[in-house]
Amino acid sequence: MSAASAPTRDRPSPRTLLFGNPVVETLVAMVAVSLLTWGASFVGLVGLFALAPPVLLPPWTLVTSVYAHAGPGHLLSNAVVVALAGTLVSLSTTRLRFHLFFVVTGALAGVAHVWATGLLGGPTAVLGASGAAFALVGYVLAANPASGMLFDTLRLPPRVLVVLVAAVALGLTLAFSAPGSALVAHFAGAVMGLLAGRLRLLGVR
């Protein structure tokens, strides 16, 4: 009589772990779109990927500009932040919500940068995931239990909370932005992330 084998649990395949992970999917998309952007730059078609005024012409640049990067160094720096902060965010949300948060915050941060620099007469085209990356960092800072306890204890008035969010976002922007980078996009992304984190916008449990 042979011994009965112990029941085994179904384990996710490596393919599921990789391509079912929104952070990995985002990083793959960043690499793919960046490669296309670098190829297009050789023939003067980088405008097909970068966000520039008017921001809806062509409309797809609202999305492609979030994933496209100016060079390998630019891509690597943003990928590290997305990998670290994005992994923490992905643990408490769904795949769809993660992707929507990344694209929406990245696009809005890009639009804010284009409009602000346009008003100041500076260069207005922008590309890169830094706005979304700062949003992910802001979300992690504001959505963790320690921050929640602090806010609940202090019971800050709405106006004071707005000033605090702006101050923290400005601090993040100045501390972690490289010279010549899109400061307005970084600031806007951090603000959106902090507010979304405070509201637990992505939480599903």
UniProtKB/TrEMBL annotation:
Compartment annotation? Membrane
Q: Has UniProt tagged this entry with the keyword Membrane? A: yes
Q: Matching Gene3D superfamilies, A to Z?
A: Rhomboid-like
- Please give the Pfam families that the UniProt record associates with this protein: Rhomboid
Span of domain Peptidase S54 rhomboid = 60-199
Q: Does the keyword Magnesium apply?
A: no
- SUPFAM superfamilies, A to Z: Rhomboid-like
Source superkingdom: Archaea
Mind listing the GO molecular function terms for this protein? serine-type endopeptidase activity
Q: Which GO terms describe its cellular component?
A: membrane
Q: Which GO terms describe its biological process?
A: proteolysis
Q: How does it sit in the membrane?
A: Multi-pass membrane protein
The UniProt keyword set, sorted, is: Hydrolase, Membrane, Protease, Transmembrane, Transmembrane helix
Residues annotated as transmembrane: 27-52, 72-91, 98-116, 122-144, 156-176, 182-201
- UniProt-listed PANTHER family: PEPTIDASE S54 RHOMBOID DOMAIN-CONTAINING PROTEIN, RHOMBOID-RELATED PROTEIN
Q: What is this protein called?
A: Membrane associated serine protease, rhomboid family
